[in-house]
Amino acid sequence: MAGSGFVKATSWKFTSCRCFNGGRIYETDKRFNIAEEDILQEIHEVLGESDKFPTYNDLNKMKFMERCIKECLRLYPSVPFISRVIGEDIKTTTGYTIPKGCDVNIHIYDLHRAPQIWENPEKFDRDRFLPDNIATRHPFAYIPFSAGPRNCTGQRYALLEIKTALCGILSKFKLEPVDTPQTCRHKTDLVLRPNGEIKVRFIPRK
Ligand code: HEM
């Protein structure tokens, strides 16, 4: 139990929390500010105006919030790249052969911003994960939790914890960015990490 608690705590700190920070703090434009108020409205629709703690069923009803979280994880994947050792020779569609035994890095950050896949890739689009819009997308175009047999075992839990945190924070505070995408830089690491502090203003809601 202690081990599992530790995994959850560290997973939150290094992944879910990154998603939360990344999405809110870097996305300073009006599209996200409007989304934030609409997320709060959805929270009120599901929970009422009370301080009720959300249940599993409540969280599953928060579909708009979920789409915004997914868009944050597209723009700022907490795990920006993963690595694999190739198990057999692979022929690419461009005619190259990647031999068995090679180390390969899959750059999730770049994949999630590839213009061949995403229209206006740099834009925060709250509708990008509507069912109609994901129906035609390649299943491996969006892989914040990796894919295949070694994908993230905590992904459902991660979404629930991010949603829970958003319910608590957004119902009490309006968040305003202090740092911007222009002032923040990332540094190379296993998780997407800012090169310094990211400041955000918490304004209590009346
Ligand atoms: C937004 C939050 C999270 C993101 C973006 C994320 C992302 C990922 C990614 C990309 C991998 C694959 C790593 C690789 O293939 O090298 C992974 C693996 C894993 N994640 Fe997460 N993760 C998140 C939260 C969590 C949480 C909350 C837990 C646990 C409660 C968790 C547990 C694990 C475990 C155990 C693996 C290894 C799976 C395996 O190798 O079979 N993750 N995660």
UniProtKB/TrEMBL annotation:
Obligatory cofactor(s): heme
UniProt cross-references to InterPro entries, sorted A to Z: Cyt_P450, Cyt_P450_E_grp-IV, Cyt_P450_sf, Cytochrome_P450_Monoox
Pfam families tied to this protein: p450
UniProt keyword annotations, A-Z: Endoplasmic reticulum, Heme, Iron, Membrane, Metal-binding, Microsome, Monooxygenase, Oxidoreductase
Endoplasmic reticulum is among the record's keywords: yes
Predominant location: endoplasmic reticulum
SUPFAM superfamilies (alphabetical): Cytochrome P450 (SSF48264)
Membrane topology, record value: Peripheral membrane protein
Subcellular location: Endoplasmic reticulum membrane; Microsome membrane
Matches recorded under Gene3D superfamilies: Cytochrome P450
Family stated for the protein in its record: Belongs to the cytochrome P450 family.
Function: May be involved in the metabolism of insect hormones and in the breakdown of synthetic insecticides.
Protein's name according to its UniProt entry: Cytochrome P450
Biological source species: Molorchus minor
